[in-house]
UniProtKB/TrEMBL annotation:
<dbReference type="GO" id="GO:0046076">
    <property type="term" value="P:dTTP catabolic process"/>
</dbReference>
<dbReference type="GO" id="GO:0046081">
    <property type="term" value="P:dUTP catabolic process"/>
</dbReference>
<dbReference type="GO" id="GO:0006203">
    <property type="term" value="P:dGTP catabolic process"/>
</dbReference>
<dbReference type="GO" id="GO:0046047">
    <property type="term" value="P:TTP catabolic process"/>
</dbReference>
<dbReference type="InterPro" id="IPR048015">
    <property type="entry name" value="NTP-PPase_MazG-like_N"/>
</dbReference>
<dbReference type="InterPro" id="IPR011551">
    <property type="entry name" value="NTP_PyrPHydrolase_MazG"/>
</dbReference>
<keyword id="KW-0378">Hydrolase</keyword>
<comment type="similarity">
    <text>Belongs to the nucleoside triphosphate pyrophosphohydrolase family.</text>
</comment>
<feature type="domain" description="NTP pyrophosphohydrolase MazG-like">
    <location>
        <begin position="37"/>
        <end position="110"/>
    </location>
</feature>
<dbReference type="GO" id="GO:0046052">
    <property type="term" value="P:UTP catabolic process"/>
</dbReference>
<dbReference type="GO" id="GO:0006950">
    <property type="term" value="P:response to stress"/>
</dbReference>
<dbReference type="InterPro" id="IPR048011">
    <property type="entry name" value="NTP-PPase_MazG-like_C"/>
</dbReference>
<dbReference type="GO" id="GO:0046061">
    <property type="term" value="P:dATP catabolic process"/>
</dbReference>
<feature type="domain" description="NTP pyrophosphohydrolase MazG-like">
    <location>
        <begin position="177"/>
        <end position="235"/>
    </location>
</feature>
<dbReference type="Pfam" id="PF03819">
    <property type="entry name" value="MazG"/>
</dbReference>
<dbReference type="InterPro" id="IPR004518">
    <property type="entry name" value="MazG-like_dom"/>
</dbReference>
<dbReference type="GO" id="GO:0047693">
    <property type="term" value="F:ATP diphosphatase activity"/>
</dbReference>
Length: 273
């Protein structure tokens, strides 16, 4: 099939997308913006698209999710095209690597292992397989392989997961709560010195332990904080709307009035819930 026909063939699937990406990056006839991009400039878009997928799922916006997943797929295709141009690997290498990984990590589905085991046991088996893979890659440390560029709260959560797997963990949630109190007191102490570096350090320690509490409670902190931020945005927007009905803007109000409106919004949400 001629390239032009492939690009305009709505039924062509992934091959059509790969050809579109190749044409966009063509140094003679492609798009100037796409041509000048590299891995570093595209990476932020990849992260952004992943979050937009998560946002669509959280809002149960299934119509939007199709488009967001397409945007995320395009990011993989973009990176693979640049890698092929540099002689690193191709998109088919990416697919082959993922297929091999999934087959290897699911011996109870694609091999001869017993499938009759709990989800918890399957999770433990999965981690054992990943540990063996890290050993083959000479990743000896328990914390190696946790991406430095993850959102800080999510990375803290994953680092603590890794440490817990080798026994470095509080045995009880109460111990974590006690540590939070300890770190909060140390933050207050640091604040009293007005030393910005010490304040920042202690504040970071407190956030780190709070992420650990989430792990003990079975709560992923990045998701919880994102939901809390969405709730704050929704409620504050309602406060702004109430003020607008009175002909006022937030800066023309005061904390007492806005707090009362906030509590009213909160009460309405609870009544609906």
């Amino acid at each position: 099939m001629p390239e032009h026909d492939l690009i305009h063939d709505a039924q062509a699937g992934i091959e059509r997308l790969l050809e579109i990406m190749r044409r966009l990056r063509d140094p003679d006839t492609g798009c100037p913006w796409d041509i000048e991009q590299d891995f570093d400039t595209i990476a932020p878009y990849t992260i952004e698209e992943a979050y937009e997928v998560a946002d669509a799922i959280e809002r149960r916006a299934w119509g939007e999710l199709k488009g967001e997943l397409g945007d995320l797929l395009f990011q993989s295709v973009f990176h693979a095209q640049m890698a092929q141009e540099a002689g690193h690997f191709t998109f088919q290498d990416v697919v082959r690597t993922m297929c091999d990984k999934m087959v290897t990590r699911h011996p109870h589905v694609f091999g001869d292992e017993d499938r009759d085991k709990s989800a918890q046991q399957q999770t433990r088996d999965w981690e054992a397989i990943k540990a063996a893979e890290r050993a083959q890659k000479a990743q000896a440390g328990a914390l190696e392989g946790v991406a430095p560029n993850l959102p800080a709260l999510l990375r803290a959560y994953k680092l603590q997961q890794r440490a817990a797997r080798v026994g470095f963990d509080w045995p009880d949630t109460g111990d974590v709560v006690a540590k939070i109190a300890e770190e909060a007191n140390e933050l207050v102490e640091a604040k009293g010195t007005a030393d910005p570096d010490w304040i920042e350090e202690e504040y970071g320690d407190l956030l780190f332990v709070l992420a650990n509490l989430g792990r003990h409670l079975g709560v992923e902190p990045e998701t919880a904080l994102r939901k809390a931020s969405a709730k704050f945005t929704r409620r504050f927007s309602a406060v702004e709307a109430a003020l607008a009905e009175a002909g006022k803007r937030p800066e023309q109000s005061d904390l007492e009035e806005m707090d009362a409106l906030w509590n009213a919004v909160k009460a309405r949400e609870k009544d609906k819930g």
